[in-house]
Amino acid sequence: MINRVWRASLDLRFRYDGVRTVIDRRKHFGPLRIQKPFYPEDGACHAYILHPPGGIAGGDELSIRAEVKHKGAALLTTPASAKIYRSAGSLSKVSNTLSLADDSSLEWLPQDTVLFGGSRLAQATRINATSQSRFLVWEILSLGREASGDCYEDGELEQILQINIDGLPRLIERQSWSAGDLILSSAWGLNGNTAFGSLYGFPADQEVLRHARQILNKDGFNEMAATLVDNILVVRGIAMDAVRLRNAFVWVWIQLRQFIAWLQPSPPRIWAT
Length: 273
Fold this sequence. Notes:
mainly beta; 7-stranded mixed β-sheet
């Protein structure tokens, strides 16, 4: 029996050419690519990451590196949810490394990641920014597929996020659990919800935090909360389905983008399809 394992990588660099942000480096290995960039707003580059297999099986490894040079502005997203398939035992590994130079802006806004029952995912995201850069990043995950009768009764997740500013760690988060652990059902955890996510924005201050909390309170996002960690805005949310949570995150992003990324709202067209 042949055990086929996919390994894929994507290495991108964005540079401001005096008129707009262009991609001046795009290297890929395996089934991981980007579409032709879009320019729906002045200067900023929108790029869609494509993974043709559509899902990640046990043993597969995906690595994405994106760098934005001085004065560049890039927004990265995906055309659909990522799927982590049931595994016979091997981990599915996903690694994202995002780097920003002074006066640059990077928005990492992939659609949600669906963890199938029996999946085993190890995901690591590292952000290397400077104190003069700006970023908005979110990660949204959902457990199982209720419509297909998959209630995520088996599975494992290890998730790490590290944000470095000027070479120093400012925020390190790590969670590791298995299906059936108390964190999934307890009131201090997901409380039975199947979708969860976090949004990170930098730089932020008390005024940005106040605005974020006003948005959450005004628009009835009762299962979301915002805090400030060393000038990094952190917004967390849970919901019973990923679509509802993603829509909430999109609305928060629309309201906060001008304060953090210094750009007016311009949702990627792919989100409307």
